[in-house]
């Protein structure tokens, strides 16, 4: 099992970060990798079991299912259902936010566990790590630019 973990201190409040990152359909709004996204069957983006279908700028697509979303704990968990350009199996990820009470900033952590062939391991780990890092940066930029 491969694990990728990324953490960041964002120069925005927990509430600001969560308002961006909780939107399961919002990736194209703040993430440079993704061009468009929709929730299948017109379900709400915060409904457990909903499936987001999104595309990167190269036309590759990914389908992910929302497994949990907690406004109380500021966490989101999802799994990949289909990702032809990302050679992984059993991919499950979780993102969690916490306040930094002394500064009013937000601490975010995002991790994923999955199976990947050894030949693809380094490339996939870097792509997943970059995806998480850029999501945190993009969320912060919504309020600091």
TrEMBL record:
CDD domains in the record: PYR_PYL_RCAR_like
Transmembrane intervals: none
Pfam families cross-referenced by the UniProt entry: Polyketide_cyc2
Coiled coil (residue ranges): none
InterPro entries documented for this protein: Polyketide_cyclase/dehydratase, START-like_dom_sf
PANTHER family (alphabetical): BLL4707 PROTEIN, SRPBCC FAMILY PROTEIN
This protein's name: Polyketide cyclase / dehydrase and lipid transport
